[in-house]
Amino acid sequence: MTSTSSKPHDLQSLDTLTGGAFTAPTSGERAQRIRDWLAANPSPEQMQDVFKELSGRDKGAARLLREKLDELKRAKGQEAIAVEWAHKAEALLAQPKLNIADALAWQRDAAKAGAPLSREPLAGFKARLAERVKGIEDLQHRAQVHREAAVLLAQRFEVLSTKSWRDAQGVEEALRADVAHWQQQAAEITADANWSSLDARFAPQLESSKAQLLVVSDAFNGALALAVAAAADAAAPLPPVPVWADELRVARGGTPEAAPPAAAARPAAPKVDPEKRAAAQDAVQAALAKLEQETAEGHGKASAGAAAALRAVLKEHGKLVEPPLEARVHAALVAAGELEGWQRWSADKVREDLVAKAEGLLKRPEGQALGGRKMQETLRALREQWKQSDQGGVPNHALWKRFDEACNEAHKVVEAWLEKVRADAAEHRALRTALIEEVKAWAAEHAQASDLKAHNRALHQFADRWRDAGHVGEKVFAELQALWNEAFGAARAPFEAAQKASVERRQAMIAEAAELGAAPMLRIDAVKALQQRWQQEAQSVPLDRRHEQKLWDAFRAPIDEAFNRKTAEREKVSAAMSDHDRHVLNASKALEAANNTGDAQKIRAAVAQLEAALRGEAPPPAPKAAAPAPATAADGPAMGATEVVAPGQAAAEFGESAEQAPAPEDAEAQPVAAAADAASPAPDLVAPADGADPSARSDAEAVPASPAPAPKPAPKPVIAVRGDDRPGNKKAEALPAGRGGKFGDRRDGRGPAGPGGRTGDRPPRPGDRGAPAGGGRFGDRPPRFEDRGPRLGDAAFRAQREALERADFALRKLASQAHGEALTQVLGAWEKRDAAQLPSVQELGRAVTPAVRSGWSQALGATPSAQPAEAAEALLRLEMAAEVPTPAEQLDARRALQLKLLTRRGDPTPEQTWGQDAGKVLAASHDAASARRLQNALKALLRK
Predict the structure, then answer these.
(1) Of 69, 30, 38, 31, which Cα lies nearest the Cα of 52?
(2) What is the rounded CA–CA span in Å between residue 646 and residue 831?
């Protein structure tokens, strides 16, 4: 023991040893110095001396020493345990036959014994055992899969025995190769190093599968050899396969054998005599009524006798009793006390379960141990359940003793947790007290801070540290919270004063903004200066997000109202609708009317007229009694003539969007109806002088008359081609400027002012681009309007957009209806064997190429030549390509075809040959079932 006189010297030496832990002003600093000292790995004797002196002064700091000492003790004990379990793991790994249960038991028992499985060498042994177990499990899985593969191969032999022997002969080599490959894999499985560690049942199972497969393979090959010999020699014996034998008999000119008579049905089980069943029911009901009567009257002895009599009757006639009556019998026996002793048995069963749960609290696997709070709640629940079990039965003192001992042992975890909680609470209190002192010192230092944003960030950091300072008791927290509020309020006072002054300045700016917004003439420079002042104020003094947003909304409201008023006045000026907007509105209404008719030609013609109106072209003149003859191509276009886009061009464009664009090969099959529906048709799609745009013609008339130019060759006609002719998508022309460009962008060249062009532009000269009658460098480009056309008003723009969207939807709907009609026409053409009724390539859609349609036409034009087996296989391929279900009676055939396709990986898939397969079906005779299956398949394939 240390004397009293030498104790200060010991404390001084220990303080020097620990780096000043005993003289630290706060508990937090003392704990930090102890941690720093422990990081230097002092000796256990020094740690024990420091712990003895420090445990009575600061339990929070002493807890670190106690945990370190406990860790050293556990480490010493675990080293010996680790050596012991390492030897056991080496013995397991050295065994040629490893049992998976033994490997799992090693890991479980080592965890129970407290062995350090997460450290070497046990971590390495654990990984090696896990890898060995995984290899054994994988080998078991491979063996099972190989058995299933043998079954599938046997099924392939069985399926081929139900088909023609020629089909079996075609896949004989592939089957031989598959069987040889299966035998090779089986040999690899049995040669694996872990094969001896597998369960004893796997080896005989694999051997039996191998023997069965070889028997089936040999029998199949022998029967096929007999079938080949019998086909070559009429005197050779027939194979033992019934299907092949019948096929060979038919080939020799005979008749197939009749099927053997069906086996006689199994005799039905003898029925119970109704009179006997009724007598049994009456006897049981009489005994049951007697027992129920005695039980209701409370006769104990009489009810026991009645219960015995009922049991005797039930033993004799129990098999003939109906289920409802049997339920009544059991209920009556329970009510009469037949299950005597049930309560004792039930209570003991519950107690045994509670004892098992209590003893299992400390025997949980590694990593699943319960924490202190969870353990406390579990123990409370278990004791409450024990009290409830005592209320319903006789006490069992033996089970109670076991239960109480297990709960007391588990409660040690709760005690350790409570001690840790108390130590943490003391540490957290010291941490919060130190934080309060730090906030007071910081507030005194930053009382005159100028950077308010940094001041606010520091306050938020202090608040976060207070919130994360850890848990303390309710009374302690109430005491500390008052001190914290006082210190934090003093630190926040300068910032709150700055916020109050900033709010007053912002209110003044809001009043100034209201005065600017109410002025008759809005001063943009004053508004910008005021907004800059607001931004500077917002950046210098931060406010609460919601409060700042409210002030900002109040500030911008009068300015926004002034700008809206200015916008409304500007819109009043431009409220009058222009002629161009009126033409677009009229064309949009005409397109809406065409949409309601449901006629595709009318819709496309109306779309063409709307597009012409959007480009700024004048509407077509009213139809007259006698239309003037169009100008000949030799005369060339007149001055101011414009290019007219044919309605067929717009129809093609919308047809493509609705997936109805005609293919080039079917161009001759389409009637030229689009030109007839156009407003002003022209053979070469160049408008005559009379049909030119009035605005362009007026510009041409404004130019002074000049001498007539010498006659030139006729300009090349504009040929309407398929493709996307919308503005911006033409390959040979520059992209037009988009709407809403920057100020100063030029929307057109130096040509004449057209619709939407600038007024006051000079008239075109002969050498300018876009000049009439020979414009361009080579004089062969006709004049044209700007592709986009003049700018539209809001009403006209919305009207044309909605009309075009409805037209697109209507064309798509009509295309879908045409698709169904085309499929019906295909089936009708097949039924009547009439190739003329077959729809065109355009009507069938882009999924059908001209070559495929030509093959269908040839199949329908000829007499039925396809074999039923070939047509049936083609139908199955169509259903596989379309991914539609197959009828139940054809499922076996589909599975066989899938197996056949798996052996022919080089052949094209059904998705690639569905057009030829459909031609094979059409080449066969028509029947209702095949037509229904063909319709289901083509319905999906034509939409791809």
Answers:
(1) 69
(2) 41
Given a contact cutoff of 8 angstroms between Cβ atoms, the answer to whether 440 and 492 are in contact is no
Close Cβ partners of 434 (under 8 Å, ≥ 6 residues apart): 26, 28
Q: How far apart are CA 544 and CA 86, in angstroms?
A: 64
- φ, ψ dihedrals at 686, nearest 5°: -115, 120
Q: Which residue has the tokens 């000796």?
A: 43
Q: Tell me if 913 sits within 8 A of 851, measured CB to CB.
A: no
End-to-end alpha-carbon separation of the chain, Å? 96
Cβ–Cβ < 8 Å for 115, 173: no
What are the start-end ranges of the H helices in 55-121?
Answer: 59-94, 100-112
Question: Distance between CA 258 and CA 589 in Å, rounded?
Answer: 77
Residue reference for tokens 């949980």? 364
Sorted by sequence, the CB contacts under 8 Å of residue 723 that are 6+ apart come out as: none
Note whether 283 and 317 are within 8 A (CB).
yes
Q: CB of 607 within 8 A of CB of 591?
A: yes
Buried b (16+ CB within 10 A) or exposed e, 827-842: bebbeebebeebbbbb
The amino acid sitting at 615 is R
With the CA atoms of 372, 377, 382 and 387 taken in that order, what torsion angle do they form, in degrees rounded to the nearest 10? 130
Contact (Cβ atoms closer than 8 angstroms) between residue 637 and residue 689: yes
- Which of 72, 24, 397 lies closest to 11 in space, CA to CA? 24
Cα separation, 768 vs 222, whole angstroms: 93
Could you tell me if 934 and 921 are in contact, meaning their C-beta atoms sit under 8 angstroms apart?
yes
Q: Which two tokens stand for residue 902?
A: 């798996």
**Residue given tokens 């085309």 in the structure block:** 822
DSSP 710: P
CA distances from 447 to 440, 441, 465, 496 (A): 11, 10, 21, 12
Q: Among 771, 744, 768, which residue's Cα sits nearest to residue 758? A: 744
- Which letter does DSSP use for residue 862 in this model? S
The DSSP code for 197 is: G
Residue 67: how many CB atoms within 10 A of its CB?
12
What's the chain's Rg over C-alpha atoms?
50
Does pTM top 0.85 for this prediction? no
Gap between the Cα atoms of 466 and 439, Å rounded = 10
Q: Which amino acid is at 813?
A: K
Nearest alpha carbon to residue 591 among 642, 650, 643, 673: 650
Query: H helices within 238-322, ranges in order?
Result: 242-251, 274-297, 300-317
Nearest to residue 641, comparing CAs of 691, 684, 682, 714?
A: 691
Cα 909 from Cα 906, distance rounded (Å): 9
Give backbone dihedrals phi and psi of 643, rounded to 5 degrees, phi first: -80, 130
Are 930 and 936 within 8 A, CB to CB? no
Q: Give 10-residue mean pLDDT values along the chain (944 residues).
A: 45 82 82 86 85 81 84 75 83 80 81 76 84 83 84 83 83 86 86 79 82 85 85 83 83 63 46 76 85 72 75 76 78 61 58 86 80 87 83 70 87 86 86 89 81 83 87 84 87 85 90 88 88 88 87 91 84 67 87 85 88 78 44 34 35 38 38 36 35 36 40 47 46 42 42 41 46 43 52 82 89 73 84 85 82 87 81 88 90 89 87 87 87 86 77
Q: What are phi and psi of 820, to 5 degrees?
A: -65, -40
The 8-class DSSP code of residue 195 comes to: G
**Phi, psi angles (nearest 5°) of residue 774:** 100, 30
Model pLDDT, residue 418 = 86
> In 3-state terms, what secondary structure has residue 643?
strand
List, in sequence order, every residue forming a beta bridge with 643; answer none if it has no partner.
686
Core vs surface per residue 353-371: b (16+ CB within 10 A) or e: ebbeebbebeeeeeeeebe
Separation of alpha carbons 775 and 641, rounded Å: 12
CB 650 within 8 A of CB 602: no
